[in-house]
Structure prediction request, 138 residues.
Amino acid sequence: MARNIFIGALPPPEYQDKMKEVIETYSKYLKVPLRIDWAPARDFHITLGYLRDVEELDLQKIVQGFSIIKDFKALQAVVYDAKLYGKAISLDLQPLKLFESMHKKLIQALESASQGKYQFSTHKTFEAHITLGRLRDI
Prediction:
């Protein structure tokens, strides 16, 4: 059975709670009749990579390859923009160069661990972001 896998960094719980408060506050002031499925606060994460159709037999070696994550230091991120990507409502983050560096290290780790079998799904250039929710019925 194949699985899709997100690789992400989790914000501290207090920031997850703050993002949830902001969503709840601003949702009350939306002047357009949008239906939005907001993500639960516990699911907020900074997306560093996404893999499609990973076979069960390959999971362990990929997880081991991503053990380099433990070498990443704690970091501070700044929200610099809110965007709509298709139906996803996202916050773009800075410092972008730091997130790009982390992403490139994960690409190398994935290449090595999977012997080139898997690559991160990309639509265009990598952008560090947190997805807050998705628009419905559009």
Remarks:
- The two ends are 32 Å apart (CA to CA).
- The chain has a mean pLDDT of 85.
- The longest strand covers residues 46-55.
- The helical segments are 13-27, 56-65, 96-114.
